[in-house]
Amino acid sequence: MEPFLKVEDLKKTFKQTQVLKGISFEVQKGEIMAILGPNGAGKSTTIRNIMGIMYPDEGNITFQGKKEIPRNKIGYLPEERGLYKNVKVMDILLYLAELKDYPIKQAKERALYYLKKFGLEGKDKASVEELSKGMGQKVQFIASILHEPEFLILDEPFSGLDPVSQDLFKQEIRNLAANGTAILLSSHQMNLVEEMCDRLFLIHRGQKVIYGTMDNVKKEYANFKCTIKGKNRLEDVEGLPDVQRVEQSNEATILYLAKDVNVASWIKHLPESLEINELSIDRISLHEIFIDIATDKNMLREEAEANA
Ligand SMILES: Nc1ncnc2c1ncn2[C@@H]1O[C@H](COP(=O)(O)OP(=O)(O)OP(=O)(O)O)[C@@H](O)[C@H]1O
């Protein structure tokens, strides 16, 4: 199937600094694709190039095979929030829908539906400046989906939302993907990304570090870790086979295990001298994979560089 968005070898330099060093990825219809990376990694620059807010020095961006940006088919929630202040909520929503050539009657019906869904019933007549930050964000989210976009870019959609509103956004984003919308989502909330996204693309210093389905990323990068509660000395655990890294706090020791370790056999060979009050084996989370990469602790860098 032809992807909705195809980004090929995107390069961008600001002054002397190359911020994007050849970024390539695709977003398919009906999938939620995460674009991740530490602050300053180049996510927003990538998104701005896709949206035509700035132009790449090199590389290709195509939408359903074409270079022209199909603006009416795209919804965009930018990182910078802000709507005109002295305008009524419904007026701004209808104005933005009109810019996308979306039928006004349908836009009004959809606006009322979504305002109600997001707990903003009756706010259609309020002016934007009367809204709280979270309410404003909901209105801006509604504006980005009102015209039924085929491709939706969400830059940090969850920031500043309370947990109930986060759940509403999550549910709606999933609904949109289930109905065929291609979604590119940038977020620093790894638990939400892990829960929601089908695939992810992780950039560090303007380069691809990870690109794949959530399942494959977990299999490939999320090594096991063993958490032992009990008083144990660092020197008694450090030298254990297949232990790559040890972290200790209070009375817990976390042993990060090598890839491809046979967990059952590894447990069998733990020394009897260890004090074990509790023991658990888990795969490391996306949050931990991210921290490893962002702090350059990880073993992935070499692999990424080899694959670059
Ligand atoms: N218009 C600009 N002029 C000069 N440098 C820029 C410009 N826009 C971004 N940069 C630089 O490009 C790099 C990437 O910035 P970008 O905003 O894309 O990062 P990001 O991954 O979105 O970060 P964050 O998670 O903090 O939002 C940063 O070093 C930033 O200072």
TrEMBL record:
The keyword Ion transport does not apply. Residues 5-230 form the ABC transporter domain. InterPro entries: AAA+_ATPase, ABC_transporter-like_ATP-bd, ABC_transporter_ATP-binding, DrrA1/2-like_C, P-loop_NTPase. It comes from the Bacteria. Keywords: ATP-binding, Nucleotide-binding, Transport. One of its GO terms (molecular function) is ATP binding. Belongs to the ABC transporter superfamily. This is ABC-2 type transport system ATP-binding protein.
